[in-house]
Amino acid sequence: MRIPVLIMSILLIASSLYAATPHYAGTTAFDFLKFVPSARATGIGSSYAALTDDPHSLFWNPAALAGISRPVIAVDYMSLFEEMKMITLGSSIPLHRTGTIGFGLLYLKSGSIPITTTSPIPVDTTSLSGFVFTGGYGITGKNLRNSAALNLPHALDTLHLGALIKFFGENMYNNSRSGIAIDIGFSYSINNNTTLAFTVQNLGSSSKLIDYKDSVPTLINFGGRYDMPFTKNNPDTGISLFAGMNKKLGEPFQAQTGFETFINQMFFIRFGYTLQHSTTRFTAGIGVLYENINFDYAYQPYSDLGRNHIISAGYRIQLSKKQKLYNTIESFRDDIHENNDDNEASSSTDESEDTDKKQLIQEIKELGDEIDNSR
Length: 375
Fold this sequence. Notes:
With 375 residues, this protein is α+β, with helices and mostly antiparallel strands.
């Protein structure tokens, strides 16, 4: 058995054992901070920790920002139970060899909620609304080694680190409260097929609602992903397996697993399930990616509360020819930097070949400097 498959198997077994352990639930404020604002993440059973190539992933793992190579705009619309609606907007902007910044906005509003006293007849109605504004930053191990001049091993090039700060608030029946929190996360690609990730979300506090102050719902997530192309000659068609577990403050452990089948990286079919104690919830979804635009839909049933329908859309801004050339030069630069020691240590038996190689390296460096000066 290959090591990546073994890792995923252990993760699945461990998460199932945790989920089967009895726990007792509590209550927290700002329950909407626990929602997953993404049709793709919902479709795979919310096993989203290692889902780091999605334009909406700022909302669950800030480390995903580090892997974004071009500006992205993402929008989500969620139709939830009890006539609740949620809209999210996210944007990510890569910086020059120093990481990526991202911003997100979430707004939630419920339908009418009846207010009763001693009589079952409502005396009034109200609604619940909430918002979240986030700003985050992500950087790779390779960025740290090159831009910060840290002596990191090349094996950490695929390590992604991220953090964000969020401001949030909610309002109900003319009473409001607000808070501030941070998220931290990392992901690490063991190879081209296997990724592991860990996040801690909502580390913070909030103000009181009237005379009550509840805790903010802190979430701890751990997950893995394994990509399996159907054939070596066509890596754009295959299946991705996801597994994870999370712990929400005052609630039982949850185990999630799911899979995503992709065809030519254009059409996607997703299934997943979440296991919490003795309750199992299945989800399903579909997706389309055409050039720079993605569209996703997910269906999430609840036995007592109804059904959730989640629609997501994203747009990846097309890079100019100059920017594409710049990215290519950057890649050459990194390769040259990584092999400098080897090139200096080795002696070429063919002097003309060695001279041509040095001349090519010099031309690439000069072209990169020229582009830098014109930015």
